[in-house]
Write a structure and sequence with these properties.
CATH topology of the largest domain: FAD/NAD(P)-binding domain
Radius of gyration: 24 Å
CATH architecture of the largest domain: 3-Layer(bba) Sandwich
Number of helices: 12
Number of domains: 3
CATH class of the largest domain: Alpha Beta
Structural class: alpha+beta
């Protein structure tokens, strides 16, 4: 049997991509090396992740948001929106909106009027979620849609021809028309495919540990910079710390209680005593990105395409954005109705966004270095982030509100995530994208727009209705991933609309 697409990796990115491809009716096989998807590191508190606006909108548009936003298991003692009740930031009088290198910006300091193309929507700008819970929801959705998931079988090697990819996984061989590596930062697909992975080497080893301490009162809760590093302490014993050792310890030795105590004492500048180490892992600020996301019939997405430190929680969102961008383009390519260059636009749109996130991560590392210059710069950033314009800027970046693809077009909305227009009958734009098709909203019910949409009626849904707030527009063409391909004002440019439809949906059919 040959599958349309074989995906290496059953993490959130691989599972979400599988759902997108099944939405288009393709046959999908997911191969996952790990037999058991459960892990203490995927559960609270270490497994807490923040979803940004583009991710939340993607789940909302595919009818998955309610399931993902459901509270995690009661034993995890969730606080607000799935965050652990003991999280240090939840003890503050003001509600934080996020942070940059540990410097928080606050919700009450953000000016949403700076974002004129966002409308009220069930999809908010940020939401915490437990990683294991998110994976379980995506796996259940993928399975219900007919995705085949094989656990305990990781991709070991592959060979590709002009027509297909032959994939070796353990003692078995699988065939796929396409292979997508979603198999993490140490991706076998990336390595076997010979993809160049360029970037910067680490400056530190980061630790996430659960400890018992004889004298926990010696550590102050919250995030703290010291003369030798940085640590965050959440009672009773959850600690994240950064040791600027050039990444020397990461995955080179066993993580022992004695080692964790030595690093904690050095970084916290205390003589705290560690009595137990039930859980520990390390990470670094290594920042690398594949120079190409495609070689022949092999593609990369998520951490297989780009890695960076987990500072600010951007990695999961970046990978899920890859999946949303790639899914419909790969599906159209397999169906045979993709316009020229559609699949190449995956690299053109997502690689710059990946590079932006890597630099955002590097900038935070620069602010965290234990040096006088970094502490001086930290003081300036603290002043700036506490202004209304500063908090709004950082929210735009952290929440993904500023994301815009360079799609051309004459209207400033083109390339941005589509506003969640509410039509007069109460239907919202988000609900109209559930089938993964393009969408043409015709607010003025113009015959020429209806005729245009009919030429792509197998790929574009046409909806004629006014909206409660149309933002001064007469019509909007939206790609299957929810990004605006064309927007027309009072007198719409129908030629521009037709060009946008051809660019993203291929040659039209016969009316």
């Amino acid at each position: 049997m040959i599958h349309d697409v074989v995906i290496a990796g059953a993490g959130p990115v691989g599972l979400f991509l599988a759902c997108e491809l099944r939405l288009a009716g393709l046959s999908v096989l997911v191969l996952e090396q790990t037999e058991d998807p459960r892990s203490p590191l995927k559960r609270l508190p270490f497994g807490m992740r923040g979803l940004s606006a583009p991710t939340i909108e993607a789940f909302y548009r595919r009818g998955m948001l309610n399931d993902i936003a459901a509270p995690p298991r009661a034993k995890d003692a969730p606080g607000v929106g799935g965050a652990p009740a003991g999280a240090h930031w939840m003890q503050q009088a003001r509600r934080p909106g996020g942070h940059f290198a540990g410097i928080q910006f606050y919700q009450d300091n953000i000016d949403p009027s700076k974002w004129p193309y966002r409308l009220p929507s069930p999809a908010g700008t940020n939401m915490p979620v437990e990683l294991e819970y998110l994976e379980s929801v995506l796996a259940a959705r993928a399975t219900a849609m007919g995705v085949e998931i094989r656990r305990g079988l990781g991709v070991d090697d592959f060979k590709q021809s002009d027509e297909e990819v032959s994939i070796q996984a353990g003692a078995e061989t699988f065939r796929g028309r396409w292979l997508v590596g979603c198999d993490g930062g140490r991706s076998t697909v990336r390595k076997a495919g010979g993809f160049e992975f360029a970037g910067t080497d680490p400056e530190f080893t980061g630790y996430s540990v659960e400890v018992g301490m004889a004298d926990p009162e010696k550590l102050r809760p919250g995030r703290h910079y010291t003369a030798t590093g940085m640590y965050t302490y959440q009672q009773p014993g959850t600690i994240a710390m950064v040791d600027f050792d050039g990444g020397a310890f990461h995955r080179t030795q066993s993580i022992t209680l004695e080692h964790v105590q030595a690093v904690l004492r050095r970084v916290s500048c205390t003589d705290v005593t560690v009595t137990a180490l039930p859980l520990a892992t390390t990470w670094t600020d290594r920042a690398h990105q594949a120079t190409a996301y495609r070689k022949g019939r092999v593609l990369l997405a998520g951490d297989a395409a780009h890695i960076h430190s987990p500072l600010g929680g951007q990695g999961l969102n970046l990978g899920l954005g890859d999946a949303m961008n790639l899914g419909w383009k790969l599906a159209a390519t397999i169906r045979g109705d993709a316009p020229a260059g559609l699949l190449d636009s995956y690299l053109g749109e997502r690689h710059p966004e990946g590079a932006r996130v890597l630099d955002w991560s590097r900038a935070q590392v620069g602010l965290m270095r234990p040096s006088r210059s970094s502490r001086a710069l930290e003081a300036i950033i603290r002043d700036l982030i506490d202004t209304r314009d500063g908090a709004t800027y950082f929210a735009e970046r952290v929440w993904g509100v500023s994301l815009r693809y360079d799609l051309g077009g004459s209207h400033p909305l083109v390339g941005r995530s589509a506003p969640d227009f509410e039509l007069l009958d109460g239907t919202r734009l988000g609900a109209l994208l559930g089938k993964g098709r393009g969408l043409l909203l015709d607010f003025d019910v113009r015959a020429p727009l209806q005729t245009l949409a009919s030429r792509w009626n197998d790929r574009i849904t046409y909806v004629a209705s006014d909206a409660r707030d149309r933002l001064g527009l007469s019509g909007v063409l939206v790609r299957p991933d929810g990004f605006v391909a064309w927007a027309g004002e009072a007198t719409p440019d129908l030629e521009e609309a037709a060009q946008a439809a051809s660019r993203w949906f291929g040659e039209p059919g016969v009316v």
